[in-house]
């Protein structure tokens, strides 16, 4: 993959997480790294699916009322209804998907289940792990001013024909990769697909399309001493914030890169996931939550909007064509969709005793699959 030359880096330096505590240098590399649930799609010059104008000059959705200018009231109403029904009429240059709401739709069925897709980790297989409720799988994201197209697995594979798609990041990004694989693999005959899991690089191949959907483990994106063997104590983690070559060599020649990282960069030792954010003062984090937050413009206390603003500003100034999609707030509403106590730790499912202590053991970072990462991929698919 050919990238525009980055600014001259400072002399190689090694810094510890303890020193940063939320004050990371905002070089292009570091800034591009610091965003949760952000998706940055880096395209090579050969990829013509997105124009540079749509990448660098994103617009908010045009109001439908301004589009429908017919003087005939009936014609105007008909045009309005036609636009609503045409879910594939989506223009990423005009439509922003970040403003909207979650709408419950019992007719919505996930494209896969954690029992049917063989590529899901046990960590995110909530139903298989005993989660009894299912409503969290029937919420769809509805943008305010545009219609988000349904994910079409066959069309997605056609768009990926003769291409490499690589997801890079941490376990949240691994979840999105697994989601994408599960959303397309079921239409491929067994002898036409393969999966090779590795310690750092995992590759799913759709042979008939000569396409690969890959995941590369790089929790900070830049080089660190916790890349291969995870160091639990953040104070002992060491980052080389000006060095990305160790990882970048694995994505040379890739057609589409999807980056996602943030949790590992959060300031402080403890993650901010408590239930008072959404008004449930007596709640135990995300445990037993069964509905999204319905309050408009909800933000969790763990979101650093200043950081997101800086990232977006830098990305829009980059010469390399990049699409920045901030799905953080979309996800923050979904307090009901985390793996909670229906997960594993240390390679083992939580015991009944651990499940009875959700304040200590509930996982309010990772997402059940199928679930919220499917929506990330639906948005990603709309931009392909």
From TrEMBL:
Subcellular location field: Membrane
Primary residence: membrane
Keyword Transmembrane annotated: yes
Entry membrane topology: Single-pass membrane protein
Matching InterPro entries: TBL, TBL_C, TBL_N
The Trichome birefringence-like N-terminal domain, residue ranges: 93-146
Record's keyword terms, sorted: Membrane, Signal-anchor, Transmembrane, Transmembrane helix
Record carries keyword Iron-sulfur: no
Pfam families per UniProt: PC-Esterase (PF13839), PMR5N (PF14416)
Residue spans crossing the bilayer: 24-43
Domain Trichome birefringence-like C-terminal positions: 148-268, 275-382
Domain of life: Eukaryota
Family to which the UniProt record says this protein belongs: Belongs to the PC-esterase family. TBL subfamily.
Name of the protein: Trichome birefringence-like N-terminal domain-containing protein
